Amino acid sequence: MVRTRLTAQERHVQLVEAAVTAFAQGGYAGTTTDQVARIAGVSQPYVIRLFGSKQDLFLATVRHAGDRVQQIWREAAAADPTLGGLGKAYKQLLAERDLLVVLLHGFAAASDPGLGDAVRQCYGDQFALVRELTGASAEEVRDFFAHGMLITVLGAMRVLGPDAVAPQPWVTELLSTLPAADD
Fold it and tell me: Where is the HTH tetR-type domain (predicted)?
């Protein structure tokens, strides 16, 4: 079997993707660089050599997740530059559930002095992008983010999205209160 050697950039991407999986499962505190290495099929010292520390790897993972969310919103805005158009993109985001879960772990870890500024910047960049893409007011974007956070939490709990469990009565009732999204 011929093994293709990855470039440094390809290996970096591979490790960040493995980190998305690992950090989505265990969060920042509960994930080790060894777990990321095992998912990526590399050694733990190699992960440290590329990223320097678990903290730097987590920050790269949060940036990756935030960038992917922004990419999805930009693509959605190209077709429909409204809050509704971006809201429809949540179906795609729910299909990439681990990205949303990583961001939730980032928000939860934002009290850590080494993480907080970068996580807050990620959230602020998303807020600014939605305003830029849609021209919506700060209040409208706040409401968009409030609904989005609810959808994100429900997706993290697997009550929404492609791998959703059977809904409990409260889920059905709660979902009935949300604005209907066109498919």
Answer: 9-69
Instruction: Provide mean pLDDT across the span 40-45.
Output: 93
Tell me what the pLDDT averaged over the chain comes to: 91
Number of H helices, E strands in the chain: 10, 0
Instruction: Find out if CATH 1.10.820.10 is the number for domain 8-175.
Output: no
Which value, in Å, is the radius of gyration of the alpha carbons in the chain? 18
CA distance 46 to 30: 20
pLDDT in tens, 81-138: 999 999 999 889 989 999 999 999 999 999 999 999 999 999 999 999 999 999 999 9
DSSP state of 31: -
Question: What's the pLDDT score for residue 183?
Answer: 42
Query: Domain segments of the chain: what residues?
Result: 8-175
For helices 8-26 and 44-51, the axis angle rounded to 10 degrees is 110
Look at residues 26, 27, 46 and name the one whose alpha carbon lies nearest to residue 38.
46
Q: Which residue has the higher pLDDT, 177 or 69?
A: 69
DSSP per-residue codes, 63-118:
HHHHHHHHHHHHHHHHH--SHHHHHHTHHHHHHTHHHHHHHHHHHHTTTSTTTHHH
Maximal CA-CA distance, the chain = 58
